[in-house]
Specification:
Blueprint: E1 7-12, H1 19-32, E2 37-42, H2 47-56, E3 61-63, H3 70-81, E4 86-90, H4 107-113, E5 118-123, H5 130-141, E6 147-155, H6 158-171, E7 176-181, E8 190-191, E9 194-195, H7 204-218, H8 221-229, E10 252-256, E11 261-263, H9 266-274, E12 278-282, E13 296-299, E14 301-302, H10 308-313, H11 315-326, E15 331-334, H12 336-340, E16 344-347, E17 350-353, E18 361-364, E19 370-378, E20 390-397, E21 399-402, E22 411-417, E23 425-430, E24 433-436, H13 447-462
Parallel strand pairs: 1-4, 1-5, 2-3, 2-4, 5-6, 6-7, 10-12, 10-13, 13-15, 15-24, 16-18
Antiparallel strand pairs: 8-9, 11-14, 16-17, 18-21, 19-20, 19-22, 22-23, 23-24
């Protein structure tokens, strides 16, 4: 049975055109009207969804045709649509930008797949009638993409808006659903990975409130809602089988989640719970040590470099992580988590000691050292993936490992797409620890959560035997023992 599902996709002609600010404003404005709108972000992204959560009051989810199969995308959308009044999807990059000249995995292809009306956000700086030509070009480039409206951004004055509005409505035959004036200040500051995360934004609530006020004043909220209501019903999707765990005492998986480590897809944490684990959030900044009776540890990405001094100061916590790794605790770490498990993080001329499981430093650069989608093949024994498994993920890091790992250093993956560690290999290994620059998404890698939970159960069976290994150690890593 098909279900009605109002939904809207905000796209643009390029990155940085104002999609995120308008998405946040629209989410917050509709929320104030009592509407429950579930947000999504197209592509691999952690920061924009964190802002979505703040504006919408509910988690934002990623839709990525590279990382996920079509049925997985459809199932995710349908599941969240069942609990929402509408869905709002923020596109990425330009509407037709993909991995190749055919626009594979582009925002446009996602809009067609989900039959979702598209509203284009257009930067009108130093343009009038040409704006209509650009919109008309997008309409004719692929007539199957359902472009249903336009929001004008960076409007200089009322006459500027009037000319563009008349040209678009005359030549393109679609409505202008808002016009945002040129702002004198930046509402959302940026740094090298996009917006500053809300966890590090001193006035995050005020920024979202500003975006909401812009939406209330300058957007046609009811017109946008009518466009969203034009979306056809979603096709019926079979419900996934209910998970069942006969274990009355689920293994406890710790997740380091604080302002240093904040990059987690909601589906990854949900997958751990569905596989039978209890998820416990902890802080590498504030907690004195790993909690007792922990059975595994998951360390996501984030910005450990901006918190390097505070992470270094929490010696007792770092030592407890190192002791747990030596005791055989399963630990899975991604990007920032990988950096945290090294010897040092170097920022400029300053070096900050980290956990010291791996004998490498991570040196921050001024340019990305790895950026984009990755494809890895499991090349050897490791705690989580069968040999020969192909994994799709993504990387975005400014750090570089030093010294270069020895060719004999144990690693889990070979790299067929992406940078990895040194360009050909990925995934540092130590006992039940696997640490990698690549981020994975649980929808596209369903075996990951089951493997981590299985290892946690195995470790719990031996935890009491290794209890003495949980005592804090000295500052200097003992490489002979590693």
């Amino acid at each position: 049975m098909q279900q009605p599902c109002p939904r809207l996709l905000l796209a643009a002609l390029r990155g940085g055109a104002g999609k995120t600010t308008l998405t946040l404003g629209l989410l917050a404005a509709w929320r104030d009207q009592g509407r429950r709108v579930v947000p999504f972000k197209k592509g691999p992204d952690y920061i924009d969804p964190a802002w979505h959560y703040l504006a919408a009051g509910c988690p934002s989810h990623n839709l990525d045709p590279f990382l996920m199969e079509g049925d997985q995308i459809l199932a995710s959308v349908a599941r969240h649509a069942a609990q929402a009044d509408a869905l709002l999807i923020e596109g990425n990059r330009g509407l037709y930008d993909g991995l190749d000249a055919q626009g594979t995995y582009s925002t446009a292809e996602l809009a067609k797949f989900l039959a979702t009306p598209v509203v284009l956000v257009v930067d009108c700086t130093m343009r009038t009638r040409t704006t209509a030509a650009m919109v008309l070009g997008c309409q004719h480039f692929d007539p199957q993409v359902p472009i249903r409206g336009v929001i004008l951004n960076q409007i200089a004055r009322p006459r500027h808006e009037a000319i563009i509005r008349q040209a678009i409505e005359s030549y393109c035959g679609i409505p202008v659903l808002g016009a945002i004036p040129r702002l004198k200040c930046e509402v959302f500051p940026e740094r090298h990975m996009g917006l500053v995360p809300p966890q590090e934004h001193a006035t995050a609530i005020r920024a979202v409130t500003t975006a909401r006020d812009l939406a209330l004043r300058y957007l046609d909220l009811e017109g946008l809602w009518r466009v969203a209501a034009q979306a056809p019903p979603l096709p019926a999707v079979a419900a996934p089988p209910a998970s069942f765990c006969a274990d009355c005492h689920p293994p406890v998986i710790g997740v380091i989640r604080d302002s240093a480590f904040q990059f987690y897809y909601p589906e990854n944490l949900e997958a751990l719970r569905e596989a039978g684990a209890a998820v416990l959030e902890i802080s590498a900044l504030d907690d004195p040590a790993l909690p007792p009776h922990l059975d595994a540890l998951y360390i996501g990405g984030g910005f450990p470099e901006t918190h390097a001094a505070a992470l270094a100061e929490n010696l007792s916590f770092r030592n407890s992580v190192k002791a747990a790794a030596r005791a055989g605790m399963p630990i899975y770490a991604e990007c920032g988590g990988l950096m945290y498990l090294g010897e040092h993080i170097q920022v400029g001329s300053n070096k900050f000691p980290m956990v010291g499981i791996f004998p490498y430093d991570f040196v921050m650069g001024k340019k990305p050292q790895g950026h984009g989608y990755t494809v890895l093949e499991v090349a050897g024994d490791n705690p989580y993936f069968p040999q020969g498994t192909v994994l799709k993920g993504h990387e975005f890091h400014y750090s570089q490992i030093t010294p270069d790992p020895d060719p004999e250093a144990p690693m889990a993956f070979t790299v067929s797409r992406g940078t990895g560690i040194g360009g050909r290999r990925e995934g540092l290994l130590y006992r039940n620890v696997l640490a990698t620059y690549t981020h994975i998404h649980a929808l596209g890698c369903p075996q990951w959560a089951a493997a981590l939970v299985r290892r946690a159960r195995e470790y719990r069976g031996d935890a009491d035997l290794d209890a003495t290994a949980q005592r804090p150690e000295t500052e200097t890593p003992d490489r002979a023992r590693l």
